[in-house]
């Protein structure tokens, strides 16, 4: 399958808030190595997403579900030697996907709600574990996580 190349895509993304250092990426893979999402979702690869943007694969990037998988934990940003700020680039790609009709604003809002909920859930699980006060549903959830 031959993808349509949009030679302006990287310029568009790098001109958006958070995208300024996009062109500094030299594909070292530090972002992917530290990413908790890439450990559980093989298709999510921050280095690959950056490369696709730099190569101009606009339709593939904006129409794919991968840009919505990022948990926004910022682990990648702490490890990037070039300060590429992948989580900020993901935010820019999400805004672009909505603006250009690849996704709806309602969908983007629900993903943000899921991100917020998962952070709250983590806090509650850790607190319950620390306090020795996990209820049955939370304990069952932790058991399921062990299998991942």
Automatic annotation (TrEMBL):
Q: Which UniProt keywords apply?
A: Iron, Iron-sulfur, Metal-binding
> PROSITE patterns recorded for this chain?
4FE4S_FER_1, 4FE4S_FER_2
A GO CC term? Answer: plasma membrane
Q: Which SUPFAM superfamilies match?
A: alpha-helical ferredoxin
Which residues are in the 4Fe-4S ferredoxin-type domain?
Answer: 16-45
Q: What Gene Ontology terms describe what this protein does at the molecular function level? A: iron-sulfur cluster binding; metal ion binding
Query: Which domain of life, per UniProt?
Result: Bacteria
Database matches in InterPro entries: 4Fe4S_Fe-S-bd, 4Fe4S_Fe_S_CS, HdrC_iron-sulfur_subunit, Helical_ferredxn
Question: Pfam families, alphabetically?
Answer: Fer4_8 (PF13183)
Q: What is this protein called?
A: 4Fe-4S ferredoxin-type domain-containing protein
Q: Which organism is it from?
A: Mahella australiensis (strain DSM 15567 / CIP 107919 / 50-1 BON)
């Amino acid at each position: 399958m031959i993808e349509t190349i949009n030679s302006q895509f990287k310029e568009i993304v790098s001109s958006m808030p958070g995208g300024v250092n996009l062109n500094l990426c030299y594909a070292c893979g530090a972002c992917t190595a530290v990413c908790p999402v890439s450990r559980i979702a093989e298709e999510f690869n921050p280095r690959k997403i950056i490369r696709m943007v730099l190569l101009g694969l606009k339709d593939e990037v904006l129409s794919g579900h991968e840009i919505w998988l990022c948990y926004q934990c910022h682990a990648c940003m702490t490890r990037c030697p070039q300060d590429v700020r992948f989580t900020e680039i993901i935010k820019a790609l999400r805004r672009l996907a909505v603006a250009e009709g690849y996704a709806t604003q309602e969908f983007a809002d629900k993903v943000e709600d899921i991100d917020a909920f998962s952070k709250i859930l983590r806090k509650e699980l850790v607190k319950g574990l620390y306090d020795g006060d996990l209820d049955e549903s939370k304990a069952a959830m932790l058991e399921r996580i062990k299998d991942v």
